[in-house]
Structure formats: structure tokens, C-alpha cells
Amino acid sequence: MGRRTRRLQRTEHVPLRSASFTRAESGSDGEWLVRNVPGSSSAKWYRCPGCDQEIPAGTPHVVAWPAAEFGSVEDRRHWHPPCWTARGRRRPGGRRY
């Protein structure tokens, strides 16, 4: 008997694998749910929206998504911790080196 696989819908909620605590944060840019991801739980490369630089696999970082959402894959953004902290003081994208 063949194995059946299910493709994820774009709107389907996918839980984060990290066992880290999710916290709520408020800022001038709205309400966010935020989770610190330890390097041991980071298996993919991401691009930080704050500085537009890559976050290599195995690097601790922050995942944030709008508090009104369930954290679907499309809404999550992976940030360097200093970029997340400074997001209210600088515009997204930053300079690319």
C-alpha cells in the first residue's frame, strides 16, 4: 500500500518546532507574538527583514508574527535579535552589504 502525503495549504497553521516560550510584544508597529529560537532548533537559512542579511542555519534568532494571526508560515518573520529590538528605530530592509 502506497504512502499518502498531504501538502500544506498556504493558510494552514504550522506549529513552530522550538520548545521556546512565546511572548506578546507591543510596539509602534502593532502587536506581535515573539519566540526566541535557539541555534539547535534552527535548521534552515532565513533572511532578516531588518537588515536584509541572511540568518544561517544553526544561528539563534527571533521569530515574530502578528498577534492577530495563528503564526502561519506566510506571516512569520525571522529576525536577528538586535534587528528585532531596533525595528522601531530603523526602516525595514536596511542596507545590503
What does it look like?
- By secondary structure, the protein is mainly β.
- 5% of the residues lie in helices and 28% in strands.
- The protein has one helix spanning 81-85; strands at residues 22-27, 30-37, 46-47, 54-55, 61-66, 77-79.
- The strands form 2 sheets. A 4-stranded antiparallel beta sheet has the order 1-2-5-6.
- A hairpin with a 6-residue loop joins strand 3 (46-47) and strand 4 (54-55).
- It starts with 21 loop residues before the first strand and ends in a 12-residue tail after the last helix.
- Residues 5-14 have low confidence and may be disordered.
Brief write-up:
By secondary structure, this protein is mainly beta. The chain has one helix at 81-85, and strands at residues 22-27, 30-37, 46-47, 54-55, 61-66, 77-79. The protein has a four-stranded antiparallel beta sheet.
Blueprint of the fold:
Elements: E1 22-27, E2 30-37, E3 46-47, E4 54-55, E5 61-66, E6 77-79, H1 81-85
Antiparallel strand pairs: 1-2, 2-5, 3-4, 5-6
